[in-house]
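// run 5 | inverse folding | seed 20
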């Protein structure tokens, strides 16, 4: 596996819509507004977000056709009235499941939500 780049310079301008984070290949972009970023390696929810985005880096590794397959899946979900970036998208489901699993594990261990002060 290549090194994953955690980028706090914001979501690329060519990406439509509002996103907490966005992954392209090994590059994870975190949303940045003013002086705040969605990259947070200290909180349980921040680590769960990183886990979610790491699933997308693995999806890129699994298939060179992943970006096209993702767009097709998002289009299918949208055509059925769903949220293309939501749980109905099979690629997002995989990522939400992993992020949720990590979040539940950490919440059980760090009740205050701070995993890594
Ligand atoms: Zn996602």
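// decoded
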């Amino acid at each position: 596996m290549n090194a994953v780049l955690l980028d706090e310079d914001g979501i690329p301008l060519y990406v439509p819509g509002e996103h907490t984070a966005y992954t392209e290949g090994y590059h994870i972009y975190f949303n940045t507004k003013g002086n705040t970023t969605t990259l947070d390696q200290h909180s349980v929810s921040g680590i769960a977000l990183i886990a979610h985005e790491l699933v997308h880096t693995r999806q890129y590794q699994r298939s060179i056709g992943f970006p096209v397959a993702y767009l097709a899946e998002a289009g299918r979900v949208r055509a059925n009235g769903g949220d293309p970036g939501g749980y109905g998208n099979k690629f997002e489901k995989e990522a939400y499941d992993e992020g949720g699993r990590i979040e539940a594990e950490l919440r059980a261990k760090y009740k205050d939500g701070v995993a890594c002060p």
